[in-house]
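tokens incoming
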């Protein structure tokens, strides 16, 4: 739930700044969402490198996939790269598309982990699925510009 809170709070703050401080680079919802997503993915990326969450994420990798620690590191690096890419207007749509693909590719591991009762146990699968759709929707809004 923390990633959603970060997304919502940073997006709302960015949009309020755009309205009240007249910041041209925050003049739309898609711009505000870019900042919310960047903050969210920077936060979630940290879990890929910091214990005890890193170990929990490694547990979530289905055993049929090779090199679970390397995959967790790789996805963390991709999340950081995507977060940085979102902050650069010229690369924001591409970064959002890459992050959307990452969300889709990693979701089966979330399903597997919930079914096996391993890894980070923050919420039931139906709620996790709804949040996944929200995150994908946010990336779609950035892609649409």
């Amino acid at each position: 739930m923390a990633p959603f809170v970060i997304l919502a709070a940073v997006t709302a703050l960015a949009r309020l700044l755009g309205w009240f401080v007249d910041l041209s680079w925050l003049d739309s919802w898609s711009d505000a969402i870019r900042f919310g997503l960047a903050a969210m993915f920077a936060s979630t990326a940290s879990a890929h490198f910091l214990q005890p969450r890193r170990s929990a994420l490694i547990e979530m990798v289905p055993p049929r996939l090779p090199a679970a620690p390397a995959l967790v590191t790789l996805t963390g690096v991709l999340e950081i790269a995507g977060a940085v890419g979102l902050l650069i207007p010229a690369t924001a749509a591409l970064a959002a598309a890459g992050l959307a693909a990452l969300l889709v590719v990693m979701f089966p591991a979330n399903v597997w982990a919930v079914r096996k009762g391993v890894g980070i146990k923050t919420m039931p699968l139906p709620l996790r699925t709804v949040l996944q759709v929200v995150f994908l929707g946010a990336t779609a809004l950035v892609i649409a510009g």
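note: Residues 92-116 form the longest helix (25 residues).
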